[in-house]
Amino acid sequence: MRKIFSFLLIISLVLCSFHACKPKKRPIAKRPATEKEIIKPTSSSSKTKVIKAENDALNKAVNFWLGTPHKNGGCNKSGIDCSCLVMSIYKEVYGIDLYRSSIDIQKNVFFVNKSELKEGDILFFKTTSADRVTHVGIYLKNDEFVHTSTSKGVIISNLNEAYYQRTFFKAGRHLKVK
User: Is residue 5 in a domain?
Assistant: First the structure.
């Protein structure tokens, strides 16, 4: 009985050592978008679409964050949430300090009609059954906006997509953004 136990123990150790030597998978680094282009896969195909904001500083800031993973409460390249994305871009591009939460960012703006959207306007969404703002993004142009998706990270989406039409709440503009 002792010999069988010893044999099984040795076999187990050998098998475990092979498993420990297995090479680890390393993530493949993605090529960032060019400085003046924001590249986004369209929802209807695998082709890419180029979005160019008029403001070069906005293009640069969006490109910096594009592809960053989503992380609740995160505020750096390893993970960021929607309100920190908006806050960070506003600070870098416009030199404006915004509140940190989606709800409080509303206090920094005056509201505008959806039909009057301009580059840099902040978009507010109600994405849950709670009767409050739960998501924000920044309008670019041609109904495109940058925001943080919980599953895809920082991406560019279109306001005409059914989900965003259903969850759109308000748009706001800061007095210092022209």
Answer: no
